[in-house]
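Late entry, written up from scratch paper. The run itself happened at the end of the previous shift, but nothing got recorded in the book at the time, so transcribing now.
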Amino acid sequence: MTKIEVKLPKKLEDHLDYLAIVSKRPKEFIVREALIRYLEDAEDIAKVFEREKKKGDKTYTTEELLQHLNLKEVSV
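Output as recorded:
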């Protein structure tokens, strides 16, 4: 297994610490599971994007969509 070092902002570290305590799971487990889910979701999105591209359907970036709808981007 490969070991990766990650620097986290304090707020994210605090969330991770809290989740480790309440779930009684090691932080490594939580980060590994989160990364697995993220990568699976990203792969699914990429597959859909490629399928739509092959069909010739137009895709839009978030910025293009917001501009088209006359909306402003909201920071979360």
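The helical segments are 10-23, 27-55, 62-68.
(Scratch paper discarded after transcription.)
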